[in-house]
Amino acid sequence: xxxxxxxxxxxxxxxxxxxxxxxxxxxxxxxxxxxxxxxxxxxxxxxxxxxxxxxxxxxxxxxxxxxxxxxxxxxxxxxxxxxxxxxxxxxxxxxxxxxxxxxxxxxxxxxxxxxxxxxxxxxxxxxxxxxxxxxxxxxxxxxxxxxxxxxxxxxxxxxxxxxxxxxxxxxxxxxxxxxxxxxxxxxxxxxxxxxxxxxxxxxxxxxxxxxxxxxxxxxxxxxxxxxxxxxxxxxxxxxxxxxxxxxxxxxxxxxxxxxxxxxxxxxxxxxxxxxxxxxxxxxxxxxxxxxxxxxxxxxxxxxxxxxxxxxxxxxxxxxxxxxxxxxxxxxxxxxxxxxxxxxxxxxxxxxxxxxxxxxxxxxxxxxxxxxxxxxxxxxxxxxxxxxxxxxxxxxxxxxxxxxxxxxxxxxxxxxxxxxxxxx
Length: 423
What we know:
By secondary structure, this protein is an alpha+beta fold. The chain is 45% helix and 10% strand.
């Protein structure tokens, strides 16, 4: 997974840490140009403002193609403007970018040119995150993502690399090598074919609870982590019982799930909050992606999700890819501690399972099928790393923090959504 070599022309290639078994070739579906917020650096904003569209696109002649954000932690930053339907103002009628069409690929903002990839320096390596919100990625179509390495290297030459961020673990800043070691343990548990997917996630959650206490930088701590990781699969198989969610856990899970599926809108916030309260209390029909489903919460509960419970590897493969990319560490625009962030990442497993059931119920099916899982992963991936506890009032944020740290929310939520183990 870790690559560092010449590109054949004598130029140095960065050491990319690439998620395995992930594929991508652009299908030109245009999804990434609809409803995605593309932030701009000042040089990009100025370059866009200087473009002359005379004789090329009448709707862009003299038009405002960027807007400034006026609220939140990104206040003062500029982004690409959207049409009323959420599409980028540069999107053409045939799903083509008109910047690319008329001025070449270099005219597009760097975020657009990098999509569906993002990069994060981790010591001597560069972690590669892949957006599963991209249709081609979620469908597993195209070439393995490592085939894009030379393209990545060229793009990164244009970007001033930030200093590698410090990662906090058990209250301490730790070296990237320790994070890499822990990442590999978690990925190994998530790929353990001897366990059903829910038990793989439970094993990873138990490792975060048992293996990362005390000072993680000592040799003794490393030996303890190895011993715990080696024994976890047998322990999970030997102790299958998991308690259901209590009232606090249920509230926290549903609130976080609602936020993940329905990011705060730019308008009609009152309706969004009312829908969130109804979702929390499982009243009426749930709202997903801003739209009310035809299925009720009761309909969703009745859907058979044995596909996920017994062996569908898609959600755990997604979790492994996110661990490699490290984007889960970002909460809004703030770096979050590793253990809390990793637990919130694992909480995505029951969220994907619930969303898969909701999509199946909405199409009047009694069983989850693979397309439901792929669409659910796209929905959850879209907001990963963007949600933060700032979305909650202070008392609720405190309750969430306590619940994610002090209870087995991940495994209890998984049990409630997927049911118990087969006899």
